[in-house]
Design goal:
The chain is mainly beta and 122 residues long. Helix content is 0%, strand content 50%.
């Protein structure tokens, strides 16, 4: 069983930056691909980015590519999401998730964090 805890959310002005962290425990962290998803009020949870267990491969949603950067530190069992040039439409609860496979869909993921709120003001 893997436990995930996100942190780093908050309120930021448009054009600003935030760095989210997701700390994992209870499993072999490097064996899991890690994804970030987000859910805005009244909307479905959507894929943001995924990174392989080694960190060698990443894949971003078109909406964040070039602005967000995912990374991981397997020695610290932590994955990060650096968010730059934030827009009001980035406002959402951000979730990290772990999978022993790979994918861009919610059903690909076995473990989820509780989420952290990101609010971007205009």
């Amino acid at each position: 069983q893997v436990q995930l805890v996100e942190s780093g959310g908050g309120l930021v002005q448009a054009g600003g930056s935030l760095r989210l962290s997701c700390a994992a425990s209870g499993g072999t962290f490097s064996s899991y691909a890690m994804g970030w998803f987000r859910q805005a009020p009244g909307k479905e949870r959507e894929f943001v980015v995924v990174i392989t267990g080694s960190g060698a491969t990443t894949y971003y949603a078109d909406s964040v590519r070039g602005r967000f950067t995912v990374s991981r530190d397997n020695a610290k069992n932590t994955v990060y999401l650096q968010m730059n040039s934030l827009k009001p439409e980035d406002t959402a609860v951000y979730y990290c998730a772990a999978t022993g496979r790979w994918g861009f869909k919610k059903y690909n993921y076995d473990y989820w964090g509780q989420g952290t709120q990101v609010t971007v003001s205009s």
